[in-house]
Amino acid sequence: MHLAFNRPLALVLLTGALLGLSPELHAQFRYAPNNAYLPAQTQAAANTLAPAQTPFSYAPPPPPAYGYPYPVPAGRAYGSLSGAAELTNANAQYQSTIQQAKLQQEQARQAAIDTRRKRFEEMRYEQANIPSPEEIRQRELYTEWQRSRNNPPQTEIWSGKALNVLLAHIQQVEATQGVRGSMVPLNSAILQRVNVSTGTNRGSAGMLQNGGKLRWPLPLTQERFAKERETIDRLTPQAVQYTASGLPNDAVLTDLLAAVKTLKDRINDAVVALSPDDYIRSMRYANELNQAVRTLSQPGAANYLNGQWAARGNTAGDLVAEMTSNGLKFAPATDGNESSYTALYHALLTYDSGVTQLVTPPASVSRLSTTPGEARGP
What we know:
Blueprint: H1 7-19, H2 23-29, H3 40-49, H4 76-129, H5 133-149, H6 154-158, H7 161-177, H8 188-192, E1 196-197, H9 226-244, H10 250-269, H11 276-296, H12 302-305, H13 316-326, E2 329-330, H14 338-357
Antiparallel strand pairs: 1-2
Helix pairs in contact: 1-3, 5-7, 7-14, 9-10, 10-11
């Protein structure tokens, strides 16, 4: 059946269809306001029936930050290129970090080398300026010699220390310079009261040279010490006789040492009854006696008793020669012989001054120096 085209009917049907469309379709439909297929009255009717819509406008996206005017389309090629670029940047950063680390390591190594060099230079500086042990020993000898020459304490004279320092200096000058001092006479009576030793012990058998007959100090002659005195007076001559014969009796020496120890105990027990001076004098004598008895047990003790080891000589030079040939030193003075030591000290001091004036520079001067190779005088 053929239907004739009715134009007004078509317009009515189209208008109804448009009224039933969704707002989204209305917006799409209004995208072309100059639609040639809709007449003016139809467009007016549609505008009257449809709600007002915002006109469509296109706002392009902002350009990228790096200034490229067009957006880069995402895709497989873009991802590959972007990953390769990031890998290249990371590798460059890694290589830069490695080189910086190597540079810092090299700087640290150079700093360590410089530190070792400075330590070595400091060590050499200290070694060049710190005196050697021998220089220190020479300085100490020089100091002791100066002390012994300049009015030393009486106790150092009576102990034999000052005498031994002067003796050692005189021996050194005479041996190294081949000189002899001026003649300084000595009194033989003084030398008889001077004790000597080999230097292996501080004691001497000088107080036992008179056959072992002891001279007791006044405080020890009291009745409270009578028993100990009698025992010691009985054993001492026996010990001296055995030792002088070259066959010391150990039993006698042991009993004698025990008797001396008992005497020291008795002195300590009587400390309240004795005055301070008497106690000091008594204890000093007991100590000297104890050391003399112990000297008898030393090898060569017979030489103390037969006079072979003794201080003798007509002059100070002869005394020095005798002491040098026998390897002797001065031993401490026994009670009552202090004045003889003082007289001998002045004689040795005079002889030492004469010997020192004969050498230039003095052989006793310490060879210490503030810089290597520079000697320093007194």
